[in-house]
Amino acid sequence: MADRGCPLEAVPLPAEVRESLAELELELSEGDITQKGYEKKRAKLLARYIPLLQGADPSLQAENRVPAPTQTTAAVSKQRKPRPPSSRDERFRSDVHTEAVQAALARYKERKVPMPSRRRSALTHSSVDTSTPPDAHSAPPDVTTGLVELSHRERPQLASVRGVARGCSGSVLETAGGVPVSSRVSSKIQQLLNTLKRPKRPPLKEFFVDDLEELLEVQQPDPNQPKPEGSQMVLLKGEPLAVGVPWPPSLLAVLQRWGTTQPKAPCLTALDAAGKAVYTLTYGKLWSRSLKLAYTLLNKLTSKNEPLLKPGDRVALVFPNSDPVMFMVAFYGCLLAELVPVPIEVPLTRKDAGSQQVGFLLGSCGVTLALTTDACQKGLPKAQTGEVATFRGWPPLSWLVIDGKHLTKPPKDWQPQAQDARAGTAYIEYKTSKEGSTVGVTVTHACLLAHCQALTQACGYSEAETLTNVLDFKRDAGLWHGVLTSVLNRMHVVSVPYALMKVNPLSWIQKVCSYKARAALVKSRDMHWSLLAQRGQRDISLSSLRMLIVADGANPWSISSCDAFLNVFQSRGLRPEVICPCAGSPEALTVAIRRPPELGGPPPRRAVLSMNGLSFGVIRVDAEEKLSVLTVQDVGQALPGADVCVVKVEGAPHLCKTDEIGEICVSSSATGTAYYGLLGITKSVFETIPVTAGGAPVSDRPFTRTGLLGFIGPDNLVFVVGKLDGLMVVGIRRHNADDIVATALAVEPMKFVYRGRIAVFSVTVLHDDRIVLVAEQRPDASEEDSFQWMSRVLQAVDSIHQVGVYCLALVPANTLPKAPLGGIHISETKQRFLEGLLHPCNVLMCPHTCVTNLPKPRQKQPEVGPASMIVGNLVAGKRIAQASGRELAHVEDSDQARKFLFLPDVLQWRAHTTPDHPLFLLLNAKGTVTSTATCVQLHKRAERVAAALMEKARLSTGDHVALVYPPGVDLIAAFYGCLYCGCVPVTVRPPHPQNLATTLPTVKMIVEVSKSACVLTTQAIMRLLKSKDAAAAVDVRTWPTILDTADDIPKKKVTSIFRPPSPDVLAYLDFSVSTTGILAGVKMSHAATSALCRSIKLQCELYPSRQIAICLDPYCGLGFALWCLCSVYSGHQSVLVPPLELESNVSLWLSAVSQYKARVTFCSYSVMEMCTKGLGAQTGVLRTKGVNLSCVRTCMVVAEERPRIALTQSFSKLFKDLGLPARAVSTTFGCRVNVAICLQGTAGPDPTTVYVDMRALRHDRVRLVERGSPHSLPLTESGKILPGVKVIIAHTETKGPLGDSHLGEIWVSSPHNATGYYTVYGEEALHADHFSARLSFGDTQTVWARTGYLGFLRRTELTDASGERHDALYVVGSLDETLELRGMRYHPIDIETSVVRAHRSIAECAVFTWTNLLVVVVELDGPEQDALDLVALVTNVVLEEHHLVVGVVVLVDPGVIPINSRGEKQRMHLRDGFLADQLDPIYVAYNM
Fold first, then answer.
1. Which terminus has fewer CB within 10 Å in the chain: N or C?
2. Phi-psi label, residue 87: left if phi above 0, alpha if psi -120 to 50, beta otherwise
3. Assign residue 512 a region: left if phi > 0, alpha if psi is -120 to 50, beta otherwise?
4. Closest CA to 1457 of 1445, 1444, 1467, 1472
């Protein structure tokens, strides 16, 4: 392009200068030279010819690198004679596109896009400025160190209490979670927020209703969008097929004629990878070997004495691209035998790209035989038997090697049947669709002959001409010209294999030169490659060429290859008119081809079309906006004998207007006739009847749709602007994949990615196409360079095409699936993207900018008052949602209840009446009993503890005592010892010796916050609390008195046991950390404690003769009550299994249940998960060890969350083999204010499951739906409400009562409610009314406790023990955990469930919000190179199922998401850890 910068029309440049300029262009396009260096050298070259670059815009000279787009018929130059290349019109320069992209990028100020962060290697210590060390006090530690965390290599314990330890000075600016904001992560997020604040595209007006629920925006046509204004097009008729020329009756007749009359004439020369001619097939050899093969196929192959093949059968041809000779013999041999050849690619591995679909095609064609060569057969993958392996999805095939020695010579008198062109199928050409499915296009003998005749006439082929063919000879133009039409004209084809082109891209030009070829058949890629290799090659000449057929001339980037090629090789004898782009498709075969002037072709034309117009399907010249244009060249005229028209892409095939883009349709005797075996789509593609606007058919002959988009220009020239397969409809605008590739190619010289290795396709997310661009990254490109390139591509595409790229991914070099002859297998790439198998090394997602059809954020309506709510429910016939467990008989009436009002009294009474009755058995990991306690043993140990507290620790009544024990009988004895002397016990989980730094501060904090005057513990823990390591984590000098109960306890008993003056005296404090990280202690009075035990006893039918197995942590909530309180109250024996022991022996709990024949057992979700994962494959082994679970009546999961149905169901199914009854597993529900609201118990109806609409839940509504309906979410009731417990559902804001099946907060009233908070550490103000709430309307007298959980009550058809209809309570989730996004309320677990389903390598997931961005943390259970696959999958699934845009995707190792002892995720600590940059993530992707 010598005309860059200013028109050089006045100055004809010498050939060598033109050549040097072209080389410079290339160096710049390949990135071998900088823009500055290019300009300097160029100015130097031109200095002699142009004294001054007159009046050229300096900005253009500097910024001139970008492709050119579109213009219509009007823009096509009016001159008739082809211009000399040096004076080409500025507008048609094919590098305008590069200029456009650079100018577009210049308009964007360097917007800072946050770079994704990747894990720094463990070896490089990050510098101070890149990573802020977490503030020492930023996040105090975990009280809920759970089961799983204790194998500390797996789950690092994140600090678990939020807020700053009292007394720390807050010198660093902190978040609500007490996290220093100066961390790297927060600044990235801030950068992302700044980027997202840019104005979006104009908001859209209308909506369509999606399943009657959320309104998705649907894009309305823009009133100002361009509309076609031309008149209706007229049918374009190609010139008639020459009359009077004696065309032969069939191609086989021609072959016989040449084979017998010109046997020595060369037909085909094959080259090896070094470029040497290895074999020349003559027409005589082709005829005799084809005959031999036909005879062998028909007569020598039998199965069960029947011929294996009959005429019309399909046969697969499997030949490598390097063996055209054998392929040609096989093809003509099949035609002679009246068999139908189906040429396919050689399957190199069992999992080739698209190989499964090819197998489907072979199966549907009924192929049983494959022909191949000896060498190829040896290279195919083999099964163990030595036979060729069966490929995935392929039918069983017999393989026939057709090398000469395997064929039989036919007898002299044997003649093949077929000698005339008829309607039967001649061959089947495969075609892969946009979705990746493979279909076979059938071509009849008549069409085959007609196509060869039309090509002969269009290209002016004459006898004995030489053609150099670089294309694949098995299909498409390579087959049509190089195997079929060549035989019709007795031409000599020189076939250049792909392997040779890779080694020597100039080889085809050298062959043209040495064979004096008159025609050559190439793709624009071959021209581009030869440009790179031509430097220093002086002795080549292309003067013999009269036609250089460019098979992909319809591609938007082919024009720049043609121009650059002409520029360089014009000095080597290439005439401009020789370049002949053509367009074809598997269905219509050749559609159009440009002809040289001597064959009567009009001069070539170009069109510069507005990209904006094209996206609306309209042809416009863009005068103002020079940047977003597409330059296309014509692909010549229609073939002789063909009629061409352009029809609308959507709807009925109406003719387009003259300035409208549509699908080109062809009617001729030379097109394909059907998709093999697919009648339905055959009709719509091969038998289209185009109609005028009035509905009249334009012709009585059917038309074939070509799959090409374009229009008819002046001189009846055909212009193609894209393919239907590459069409992406985003909103209401159409974009072509090839155009977007061209724009990406124009960004920067190709320093960071490979030029030919870019794939663009669309995926459907949220009812619209989203554009995905995948490129192969050069190995030497740094991450920052690549990221820079990606953000520039986004800006260029946005500016030039006015469309957002949804996802941009870079993959390592040579990892994209290849099409057989180079290029990228697009459908396979798309498939890998959707399945998460692409393994990119860089990803940039832009859902915020691309997804413009999200539903409108919900506007909060003014609340309906509580009174109106009640009236509304009454009118609707709905009852108020309240329910209660069985009535407790009044305490005064029952002698036992009065006696059992204080637990210390109960223990003394049991020690007196049944001293030797065993209460507790503690098991270790081996399943052996390590300690036991009978009633009297426990009583005596408690007395000794009480004596020690009073004498050694000098405590007085009402003092608080921290019990820091591992799970065991010591803990229980210490608890009752405290009660015996009137002290208030506080159970604390001991610190973890391997992780003191995060677990010890929590222990210290509970001891301080609970104002404990003494710590009771074991000797080992006492040493740990005072150790050097402990001193590094906390101030060990401020511990209160620490007593070791093994050594410090005197042998004497307490003088008198304390008896509380009233049941309302405080019995113990229950400290726990919520999942939102708030540490709180609740007060339990003696009355509440005994009422709790009584309710559980009645519900679970616990008597002294019963044994129950408990696998829970004994530190808070119901776990503590079951472990320490219930056995003493009810007298049953508890088998205690510390969950920690399951880490070394997973089957411990189930073996204990079986061994002690426990009717009732309790566990946590984490225990159930360990059993499901760890024992899944071992049920057989357990059965042989005698584990039998048929004794279990109820197995209850203790939880404070929505029941995990999937886990409980898989547990039930898994252990059904061990006799676990199907109905046994159930869940419980309790929370801080009341640790046991629901327990399934042993009597009463089974738990019911309902399905609710997840979208209605977001609006705080319950809509019951059928199982399996879209968006349905199963909820199961959380067990039966305990005796004495009343539950009501209240509105979260108005506090009015709600009706049946309405979602609201669960309020509870019962004698065992906790009496209040002792302390809330974190957010005191929020919890003021938790224990003393009253309804705002209706029953305003009852005092309720607010649970902080959302749920609903529903009256079922079942009856309970009293004969009343049963009310089921469904827990939906914690109110504190919910995410308020887009005006709706989301439960994190719902989003997390969707994410975990998105890919098999996602082990766990947690979500939280930060500054209104949704952050998704994903644990990757797989190799790190799979990590980036998950970014797009996670973003897609959350958009599709929840209509939310993910802001940040964080990929971490398994075990990073902190989980407490109940198996609940600690999302707030995770958030604090992420913001303090403590997670060591594998990758953090910031979605734009």
1. N
2. alpha
3. alpha
4. 1467
Residue 436 neighbours by CB under 8 Å, 6+ apart: 354, 357, 827, 828, 830, 831
Q: Is the dihedral of CA 1200, 1201, 1206, 1207 positive or negative?
A: negative
Give the Cα separation of 653 and 657 in Å (integer). 12
Report the amino acid identity of residue 243: V
Q: What distances in angstroms separate CA 113 from CA 107, 313, 389, 406, 1212, one per listed residue?
A: 16, 60, 50, 65, 49
Range 604-613 burial, b when 16+ CB lie within 10 A, else e? bbbbbbbbbb
Q: Rounded to the nearest 10 degrees, what angle do helices 1165-1175 and 1205-1214 cross at?
A: 40
* Long-range CB contact pairs, 907-912, < 8 A, 24+: 907/935, 907/938, 907/939, 907/942, 907/976, 907/1128, 908/939, 908/1057, 910/935, 910/939, 910/1128, 910/1131, 911/935, 911/936, 911/938, 911/939, 911/940
**In the numeric block, which tokens belong to residue 626?**
């020079």
Strand order in 438-444's β-sheet? 425-432, 438-444, 674-675
1026's CB contacts (< 8 A; 6+ apart) are 1036, 1039, 1042
Give the contacts of 187 (CB within 8 A, at least 6 positions apart).
none
Q: For residue 1152, how far is the Cα from the chain centroid?
A: 43
CA distances from 449 to 420, 422, 452, 641, 992 (A): 10, 10, 5, 13, 84
List, in sequence order, every residue forming a beta bridge with 654; answer none if it has no partner: 691
Q: Which two tokens stand for residue 713?
A: 């220009």
- Per DSSP, 1342 falls in state S
Q: How many CA atoms lie within 13 A of 1426 on its CB side?
A: 16
pLDDT average per 10 residues of sequence, the chain (1488 residues): 40 72 69 70 75 38 37 39 40 59 72 73 36 36 36 42 39 42 64 62 40 57 82 89 80 92 94 91 94 89 77 92 93 93 85 77 92 90 85 89 84 74 85 86 93 93 94 92 94 93 88 93 88 73 92 83 90 91 94 89 88 88 68 91 93 91 94 91 91 90 94 92 89 88 79 83 90 91 88 89 92 86 83 92 90 80 65 67 78 58 90 93 91 93 89 86 94 94 93 87 90 92 89 88 78 79 91 81 92 91 91 92 93 94 91 93 93 88 91 91 92 92 91 90 82 90 90 91 92 87 91 84 61 85 91 85 82 91 91 94 93 92 90 94 93 91 85 90 91
Q: Which two tokens stand for residue 88?
A: 């080409």
> Terminal CA-to-CA distance of the chain, rounded, Å?
38
**240 token code pair:** 């008639």
SS3 content of the chain, % helix, strand, coil (to 5): 30, 25, 45
Q: Where are the beta strands (DSSP E) in 787-905?
A: 805-812, 842-845, 882-884
1157 Cβ neighbours under 8 A, 6+ residues apart: 1107, 1191
Instruction: Write out the two tokens for 335.
Output: 């035609």
Ramachandran sector of residue 31 (left: φ over 0; alpha: ψ -120 to 50; beta: rest):
left
Q: Are strands 929-934 and 1012-1017 parallel, antiparallel or unpaired?
A: unpaired
Q: Measured on CA atoms in the order 1381, 1384, 1390, 1396, is the torsion positive or negative?
A: negative
pTM over 0.90: no
Alpha helix positions (H), 966-1115:
969-980, 996-1009, 1019-1025, 1028-1033, 1086-1100
Per-position DSSP letters for 388-422, written without gaps between them:
BPPPTTPPP-EEEE-SGGGS-PPPTT---S--S--
Cα 961 to Cα 949: distance, rounded to the nearest angstrom: 9
| AA letter at 71 | Q
Residue 765 token pair: 């997310």
Which residues, 6+ apart, have CB-to-CB distance to 215 below 8 Å? 207, 208, 209, 855, 856
Separation between Cα atoms, residue 707 and residue 723, nearest integer Å: 6
CA distance linking residue 1337 with residue 1291, whole number of Å: 11
